[in-house]
Amino acid sequence: MNRARRKLLLLAVTVAVPVVHAQFPGFGKKKQEDPTRTVKGQVMDENEEGIRGIVQLKNLRTQETKSFHTNDNGNYQFQGLDLNIDYELRALAEGHQSKTRTVSSFDSRTELIYNFELKASN
After folding, report:
1. CATH code at 90?
2. What is the pLDDT of residue 95?
3. Looking at residue 33, what DSSP letter applies?
4. In a domain, 19, yes or no
5. Are 89 and 41 in contact (CB under 8 A)?
6. Disulfide engineering: 91 pairs with which of 19, 52, 70, 98, CB 3.0-4.6 Å?
7. In which domain, by residue range, is 61 found?
8. Alpha helix (H) ranges present in the chain?
């Protein structure tokens, strides 16, 4: 009798697993991560030469600001940004500040390039 129960259980599992997978296609699969956005670019002087500086990224939902120090060529990059959040971006270098740029949640591109040219004030 014990053997008959094992066979019945094995038959039930053999039938049930394909049925569950057919009704729930994602069952047992790893969830795909949501797409994210990358914002990158370069901070330059008025001669269009890359310069060291700081680029600030402000999350307009939480008001949190992250800063990135550019490399010697003025390059910066922010990765893993939520596509559904608006951000403000600005550059600072050598006592100068750029105009603020907006990264809109309505822009569906996953990679954006924003270059900043900082001009010396007279």
Report:
1. 2.60.40.10
2. 87
3. P
4. no
5. no
6. 98
7. 36-117
8. 2-23
Q: Which of 116, 92, 107 is nearest to 41 (CA)?
A: 116
Number of domains in the chain: 1
d(C-alpha 54, C-alpha 83), whole Å: 23
Is the model's pLDDT at 122 over the cut of 50?
Answer: no
Tokens of 112: 């954006």
Instruction: Please tell me the number of Cα atoms within 13 Å of 59 on its side-chain side.
Output: 13
Counting residues of the chain whose pLDDT is more than 70, the rounded percentage is 73
pLDDT by residue (tens digit) across 49-87? 999 999 999 999 999 999 999 999 999 999 999 999 999
Position 94 in a domain:
yes
